[in-house]
From TrEMBL:
Keyword Signal: yes
Lineage: Eukaryota, Metazoa, Chordata, Craniata, Vertebrata
Protein's name according to its UniProt entry: Sulfatase modifying factor 2
Source species: Neogobius melanostomus
Alphabetic keyword roster: Signal
Chief location of this protein within or outside the cell: endoplasmic reticulum
Length: 205
């Protein structure tokens, strides 16, 4: 669902005035300025999938993006500060996104059925566990969790694009998705998993 800008600004004001950030300057410190420009997006590789192809020229205006993906702690503080209402989801075995309990946790073993923890972490790693992957100082842009975008994904149902791949994907694509800078997939907005995340971005702050 698209949030009206007035509502979004109201949420931001509430969050910035709360104990999450001592002041707006502190909030700005967590956002990185990304300069606008024209660049080539996509891939010409034969194995491109989910709309990765073809390579096309894209113009992007300057914007700001969170240094890290939103963490559970961040969201908990947001809920406390705004009294955000959470709808509890119970067991729905017939739902397409429901996994049996035995598959809810990735155990050591043969990848990708189990998480081999080669990076030292079982499943998702802390957002600051590894150095920034780019000159802007943005962390976790590839390989830890897929990140939601506001870009619609072409399909028969309402879906949005996710970027970045996750800890259950591989560089060569031998398991799940091929993790790379052009990797993308689509998913319905009600989808949830421990390998999906998001970070905040804004044209101005």
């Amino acid at each position: 669902t698209t949030v009206p800008s007035s509502t979004f600004n109201s949420i931001l004001s509430t969050v910035f005035a709360s104990s999450i950030f001592s002041n707006v300057a502190a909030a700005e410190d967590e956002m990185i300025e990304v300069p606008g420009g024209t660049w080539l997006m996509g891939t010409s590789a034969a194995d491109g999938r989910d709309g990765e192809s073809p390579v096309r020229q894209v113009k992007v205006e300057s914007f700001q993006m969170d240094k890290y993906p939103v963490t559970n702690e961040d969201f908990r503080e947001f809920v406390r500060a705004t009294k955000y209402s959470l709808i509890l989801l119970f067991v729905f075995p017939s739902a397409p996104w429901w996994l049996p309990t035995w598959r809810a946790f990735w155990r050591q073993g043969s990848f990708p059925e189990n998480d081999t923890a080669e990076d030292g972490f079982h499943g998702v790693s802390p957002v600051s566990a590894f150095p920034a992957q780019n000159s802007y100082g943005l962390y976790d842009m590839l390989g830890n969790t897929w990140e939601w975008t506001s870009t619609p994904f072409r399909g028969s149902q309402k879906m949005f694009v996710l970027r970045g791949a996750s800890f259950i994907d591989t560089v060569d694509g031998s398991a799940n998705h091929k993790a790379g800078i052009t990797t993308r997939m689509g998913n319905t907005p009600d989808s949830a998993s421990d390998n999906l995340s998001f970070r905040c971005a804004a044209s101005t702050l």
